């Protein structure tokens, strides 16, 4: 009999940088009194982050959602945008905030990313862009998506909130599409408490993005667009600089937890995990597991409740589908018949706890609960 844990385990817990290292930066900020507005740490963070990620241009933001909203503004996207229902709501909300109509297209059954085979039939004269998500950090089929975008003259904006540090054969996944956005929220692999970034490929685009995140100011007296305030402050930029020194450790620890899950849950009937992809460096932001009721024996929700009774809090990411929320369910593309794979996966998935400080013994205990039933 496995004992109930004496303290709750959550799906994630943020990794904080060593306090003494951060304190050095704080002292510098207290001396300089520069708190925000493209200060020295903001500039240094953008440089070091771009280098770490292997991208050309990057602009940091106060959060990932404002990065998404601003990315759409930067490219002047209007009309309709094709997107996935299997994501965190912010993906679709960013379209709504830009008065853009989301058009949901189903996901593919292997890694649950937007299915490129289904994109073309959703294109209309109003379509201006595709907004896919590298869900759980697994890369979309970027080549196929780009081919479609080129054929129809569409922009591609990747929501790469889960894909920090993800590379394919050594090349950052963030180098694909017109723009990519990252989130540095506390729950993500790399956090600056709250934060985000837009990745772009040329200097002019970065300049436009930098204007837009600072009210549209190009200089003291010139406002070029109705911009927003989405700047990252100096404390968070400094915190990010310290985090950057440790993020490889964070990713390695996450990877080793994923390894334990893989070993222990390998042969459980009706339980499916997503394999790592050869040539890909993964972010291990989530560890999704699917429960197929018929072969596993109990429903996903029963598993979820059983874990909760044992003080383990997984999350049903991403359930319900975004297309099921009241704001969006009236759209023609939101019909469940149009999204059959997404609906199926949303009803089978639980993301298991994964974070750098998660102790092995809890992972093992959790696996035993899932194996014995
Ligand atoms: C976390 C997340 C966001 C939003 O990022 P915030 O930094 O929390 O605003 C957007 N899209 C996806 C897929 C996410 O997981």
Q: Can you give a write-up of this model?
A:
This protein is of the alpha/beta class. It folds into 2 domains: 19-244, Type I PLP-dependent aspartate aminotransferase-like (Major domain) (Aspartate Aminotransferase, domain 2); 248-370, Alpha-Beta Complex (Aspartate Aminotransferase, domain 1). The chain has 11 helices and 17 strands. The protein has helices spanning 19-32, 40-53, 64-74, 90-96, 142-152, 203-212, 234-264, 293-296, 300-309, 340-346, 360-372, and strands at 9-10, 57-61, 80-83, 101-104, 127-131, 155-159, 167-168, 171-172, 179-183, 196-200, 217-219, 222-223, 271-273, 280-281, 287-291, 312-313, 349-352. It has a 7-stranded mixed β-sheet with strand order 2-10-9-6-5-3-4, sandwiched between helices. Helix 1 (19-32) packs antiparallel against helix 7 (234-264) and helix 3 crosses helix 4. The longest helix is centred in the C-terminal third of the chain and has 31 residues, at 234-264. The radius of gyration is 21 Å and the shape is globular. The mean pLDDT is 96. The structure holds pyridoxal-5'-phosphate. The site of pyridoxal-5'-phosphate (PLP) has 14 residues, from helix 3 and helix 4.
């Amino acid at each position: 009999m496995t004992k109930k844990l004496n303290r709750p385990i959550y799906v994630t817990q943020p990794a904080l940088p060593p306090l003494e290292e951060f304190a050095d930066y704080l002292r510098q900020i207290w001396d300089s009194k520069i708190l925000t507005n493209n200060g020295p740490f903001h500039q240094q963070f953008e440089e070091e982050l771009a280098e770490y990620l292997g991208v050309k241009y990057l602009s940091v933001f106060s959060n990932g959602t404002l990065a998404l909203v601003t990315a759409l503004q930067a490219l002047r996207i209007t009309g309709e945008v094709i997107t996935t229902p299997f994501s965190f709501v912010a993906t679709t909300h960013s379209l709504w905030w830009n008065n853009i109509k989301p058009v949901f297209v189903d996901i593919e059954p292997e890694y649950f990313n937007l299915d490129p085979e289904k994109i073309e039939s959703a294109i209309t004269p109003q379509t201006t862009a595709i907004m896919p998500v590298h869900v759980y950090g697994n890369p979309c089929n970027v080549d196929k998506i780009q081919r479609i975008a080129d054929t129809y003259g569409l922009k591609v904006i990747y929501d790469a909130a889960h894909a920090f540090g993800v590379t394919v054969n050594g090349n950052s996944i963030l180098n694909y599409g017109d723009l990519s956005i990252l989130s540095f929220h506390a729950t993500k692999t790399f956090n600056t408490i709250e934060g985000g970034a837009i990745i772009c490929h040329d200097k002019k685009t970065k300049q436009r993005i930098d204007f837009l995140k600072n009210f549209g100011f190009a200089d003291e007296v010139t406002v070029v667009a109705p911009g927003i305030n989405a700047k990252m402050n100096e404390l968070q930029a400094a915190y990010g600089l310290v985090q950057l020194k440790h993020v490889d450790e964070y990713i390695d620890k996450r990877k080793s937890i994923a390894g334990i899950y893989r070993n222990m849950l390998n042969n459980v009937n009706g339980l499916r995990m997503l394999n790592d992809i050869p040539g890909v460096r993964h972010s291990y932001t989530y560890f999704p597991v699917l429960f197929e009721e018929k072969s596993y024996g109990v429903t996903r929700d029963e598993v979820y409740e059983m874990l909760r009774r044992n003080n383990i809090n997984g999350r049903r990411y991403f359930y319900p589908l975004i297309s099921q929320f009241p704001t969006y369910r009236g759209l023609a593309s939101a019909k469940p018949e149009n999204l059959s794979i997404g609906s199926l996966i949303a009803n089978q998935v639980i993301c298991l706890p994964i974070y750098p400080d998660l102790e092995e013994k809890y992972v093992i205990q959790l696996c035993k609960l899932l194996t014995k039933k």
